[in-house]
């Protein structure tokens, strides 16, 4: 898939923008705080329906305005698609090919992206929520079923936690416990699906990441990814294929610990508590990986995302590189830039084009960004 044109209206510091982009490489050059990242962010919004920089959609609207809009013409499977996302203080509106999508889950995934930003370098040693967000973001782009199930899981989890808080006054009431078991049963059904899907995803992604890591490290470092499931840990098993991984067993184990959940007012077991682990040469990367090794792991992960999305959707995703070249040494820069080819449309933000190989620039468009205005310089 390739973006042909990108339009913005009242998005961040862009009053209006309308550009034709290069099918292979687009370099966005400019000083910090001039709007380079805003363009990357707008493309991400068109893919995932939300920003990666803020939880508040209203922050994407230009100061003093009531709404913002972004749209692109996407070439996909030999067809041209118009994709549009509007944001105002009341919510969002989305269209694909002129047809309004009432649910965001029916919009997300039409445009696929792989984002690599400086914040991603925290994925190894940062909080588990960062790693869960990484997993969910990937799924949302190729599985609308997973997206809908995860939203349902969050809804049921909120219900259960609310009921747990209500039960604190009388934690051993039989009627209340019976109803709690009903809610738990509903939650477990969805939790099992999510756990299975995530486990398989990480197993397959690990193979790709291992291959990329060996390439980046000149076969010196072996990388393995493992999905750490709170349900599997509770059952003391290693795989979703184990016979003990069944609905009846999981419900019983969770209900056995219900008193602790009631006292805490929250659910301690489930996909919302899970994590992703990285092992480099059999050692836990969170504990033992050097800063350089962490960068190699994240780079391997991002390159693996490209291949994985291609295998699931049939099209290469758009690669968004937000000011990461300065975070990588020359060897890792070259490994990343080697991934850029005619098949993978790429957008790079950088303060200078000196880090980008000359042969790449010959097949690129270079845009100068200055305080919300954009001009093509190459």
From TrEMBL:
Q: Which SUPFAM superfamilies match?
A: P-loop containing nucleoside triphosphate hydrolases
InterPro entries found in the cross-reference section: DNA-binding_RecF (IPR001238), DNA-binding_RecF_CS (IPR018078), P-loop_NTPase (IPR027417), RecF/RecN/SMC_N (IPR003395), RecF_2 (IPR042174)
User: Could you tell me where this protein is found in the cell?
Assistant: Cytoplasm
Matches recorded under CDD domains: ABC_RecF (cd03242)
Q: Which domain of life is it from?
A: Bacteria
Keywords, comma-separated and alphabetical: ATP-binding, Cytoplasm, DNA damage, DNA repair, DNA replication, DNA-binding, Nucleotide-binding, SOS response
Question: Which residues does the record give as ATP binding sites?
Answer: 30-37
Domain spans labelled RecF/RecN/SMC N-terminal: 3-353
Main subcellular location: cytoplasm
Its family remark reads: Belongs to the RecF family.
Under the heading HAMAP family, the entry gives: RecF
Please name the PANTHER family in this protein's record: DNA REPLICATION AND REPAIR PROTEIN RECF (PTHR32182)
The record describes the protein's role as:
The RecF protein is involved in DNA metabolism; it is required for DNA replication and normal SOS inducibility. RecF binds preferentially to single-stranded, linear DNA. It also seems to bind ATP.
Q: Which NCBIfam families match?
A: recf (TIGR00611)
Q: What is the protein name stated in its UniProt record?
A: DNA replication and repair protein RecF
Native organism is Gemella sanguinis
- Classification of source organism: Bacteria, Bacillati, Bacillota, Bacilli, Bacillales
């Amino acid at each position: 898939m390739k973006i042909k044109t990108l339009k913005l209206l009242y998005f961040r510091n862009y009053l209006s923008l309308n550009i034709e982009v290069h099918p292979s490489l687009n370099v966005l050059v400019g000083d910090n705080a001039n709007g380079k990242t805003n363009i990357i962010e707008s493309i991400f919004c068109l893919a995932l329906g939300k920003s990666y920089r803020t939880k508040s959609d209203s922050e994407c609207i230009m100061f003093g305005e009531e709404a913002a809009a972004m749209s692109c013409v996407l070439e996909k499977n030999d067809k041209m698609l118009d994709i549009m996302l509007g944001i105002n203080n009341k919510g969002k509106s989305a269209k694909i090919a002129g047809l309004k999508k009432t649910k965001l889950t029916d919009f997300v995934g039409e445009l696929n992206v792989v984002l690599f930003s400086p914040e991603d370098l925290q994925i190894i040693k940062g909080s588990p929520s960062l790693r869960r967000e990484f997993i969910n973001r990937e799924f949302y782009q190729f599985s609308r079923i997973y997206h809908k199930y995860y939203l349902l899981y969050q809804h049921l989890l909120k219900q259960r936690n609310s009921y747990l808080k209500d039960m604190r006054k009388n934690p051993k009431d039989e009627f209340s416990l019976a109803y709690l078991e009903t809610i738990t049963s509903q939650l477990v059904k969805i939790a099992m699906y999510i756990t299975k899907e995530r486990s398989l995803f990480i197993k397959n992604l690990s193979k790709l990441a291992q291959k990329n890591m060996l390439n980046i490290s000149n076969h010196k470092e072996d990388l393995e990814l493992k999905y750490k499931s709170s349900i599997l840990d509770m059952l003391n098993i290693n795989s979703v294929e184990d016979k003990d991984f069944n609905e009846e067993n999981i419900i019983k184990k969770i209900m056995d610990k219900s008193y602790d959940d009631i006292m805490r007012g929250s659910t301690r077991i489930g996909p919302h508590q899970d994590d992703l682990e990285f092992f480099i040469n059999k050692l836990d990367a969170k504990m033992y990986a050097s800063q350089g090794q962490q960068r190699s792991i994240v780079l391997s992960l991002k390159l693996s995302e490209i291949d994985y999305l291609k295998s699931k959707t049939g099209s290469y995703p758009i690669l968004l590189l937000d000011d990461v070249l300065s975070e990588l040494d020359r060897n890792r820069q070259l490994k990343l830039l080697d991934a850029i080819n005619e098949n993978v449309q790429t957008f790079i933000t950088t303060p200078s084009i000196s880090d980008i190989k000359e042969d790449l620039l010959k097949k690129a468009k270079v845009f100068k960004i200055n305080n919300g205005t954009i001009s093509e310089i190459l």
